[in-house]
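Q: What structure does this chain adopt?
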Amino acid sequence: MQLMVIGPAGGHLATAAGIAADNGAAVSYVDGIETALARLRSTGADLLMADVAIDIRRLAARLDAAGVQAPVVACGTQGDTAMAVGAIHAGAKEYIPLPEAPAVIAAILAAVADDGCHWSAGVPPASSLEERAGRPRSGAAGAVTHALVGRTVADVERDLILETLKRCLGNRTHAAGILGISIRTLRNKLTVYAAEGAAVPPPNNGEIHGAA
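A:
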């Protein structure tokens, strides 16, 4: 599924979208509503994830006026219920609270993009969170739930760091740049992971040392 992320430049969501895309996820990023419309006309998208800092109501109205059928999921680093309900009332299909760490958000974006499910544009948005209580979540929220429920933030972060390092062929500097963390922080985390028995790619291309 092609996921388009909309949010202010330099924010956590923008950084996370870049990390996810660099790791091969089908994720693109734009910094505003008009840019999103232009990109949708040229390349399209299956789902839009919009930071609540973006005017969700205006986004929904512009998409409707342009005849764009891609549904919108609102998201933010605050789990405030009133904010979530407000975003849904404004036209979002769901509200997904996000952690503040860009690397972890990137894992969530990749999980959504890799889910492969397609939202039905004809399904009306829920009017409140309470209406969905006790019902299984679908679409992007379902992908996040499936991928992350039962796992700690530390576990998700570890897997993302190790996978990024693997794709960088063990290059610590390159991996740290993609993850948005300092090389010192990366090395400290890798020391911990190795002590815990994780398979940490060596600095140069070659055999992976540690537990399988």
